[in-house]
Amino acid sequence: MESPFILLVSGPAGAGKSTVASSWAASRPRPTMHIALDDMGRLQKSGRANPEDGWNDECQWQYDLAQEACAGLARLYLSRGFSCAIDHPVFPDWEAASYADWANALAGLPHFMVILLPSLERCLERNALRTGVSLLRRETVEMIHPMLTPWREQTEFPVIDNTDMTVDQTVAAIDRELEA
After folding, report:
1. Contact 87, 167 (CB under 8 A)
2. 9: alpha, beta or left, given left = phi > 0 and alpha = psi -120 to 50?
3. pLDDT, tens digit, 9 for 90 and up, residues 112-167
4. How far apart are CA 86 and CA 80, in angstroms?
5. What is the 3-state secondary structure of the chain?
6. Could you say which of 38, 140, 142, 156 would form a disulfide bridge with 136 (CB–CB 3.0 to 4.6 Å)?
7. Are 34 and 21 a contacting pair, CB within 8 Å?
8. Would you say the C-alpha torsion 104, 58, 90, 16 has a positive or negative sign?
9. Is residue 10 within 8 Å of 97, Cβ to Cβ?
């Protein structure tokens, strides 16, 4: 059985991060948690700073707190033998939500990041199927997607174009990357 570790699943809005991370976690041979940073915002019942209304100091503070909570939860579960899948966009060139922050939050913990990067059209289609607070404005998806495409130019983390992949195919692609 594999040793416990954290899989950080990144990608733009509508990439399928939550669906894939949940499915990947369910397929593991050991107990595995799925932790979505967005769930921290959904747990907050008042005073939530909505990033769609513009990123500001309050958004950054709430984001940092949610990231710390996710990393702390992963640290706790890892210490008890669980693996974890954390999903949230990690931006290559935006310090406010960068991998450096995740690396710091997960310091000392075994982790691996993978980026899901389907086409903008597929992200827009998937977003349109969402409801409630998960549904983002079209403009938001159109703004976020190009901010994550620079991941294609780097070699540190695997990038999976899951435009035409099913969830199971995407999970299998992640597993291949983990075995490589």
Report:
1. no
2. beta
3. 999 999 999 999 999 999 888 788 899 999 999 999 999 999 999 999 999 999 99
4. 17
5. CCCCCEEEEECCCCCCHHHHHHHHHHCCCCCEEEEEHHHHHHHCCCCCCCHHHCCCHHHHHHHHHHHHHHHHHHHHHHHCCCEEEEECCCECCCHHHEHHHHHHHCCCCCEEEEEECCCHHHHHHHHHCCCHHHCCCHHHHHHHHHHHHHHHHCCCCCEECCCCCCHHHHHHHHHHHHHC
6. 140
7. yes
8. positive
9. no
**Hey, how many other C-beta atoms are within 10 angstroms of the C-beta on 102?**
22
Strand pairing of 111-116 and 83-87?
A: unpaired
37, amino acid identity:
L
- State the residue for tokens 């979505």: 36
To the nearest 10 degrees (0 to 180), the angle between helices 120-128 and 138-148 is 140
155 Cα distance to chain centroid: 19
Please answer whether residues 5 and 177 qualify as being in contact, where contact means their C-beta atoms are separated by less than 8 angstroms.
Answer: no
Single out the residue of 41, 144, 138 nearest to residue 93, CA to CA. 144
| Total residues belonging to the chain | 180
57, 40 contact by CB (below 8 A) = no
Burial of 170 (0-12, 13-18, 19+ CB in 10 A): buried
Question: Can you name the residues that pair with 87 across neighbouring β-strands?
Answer: 9, 36
Whether the full predicted model's pTM is greater than 0.85, yes or no, is yes
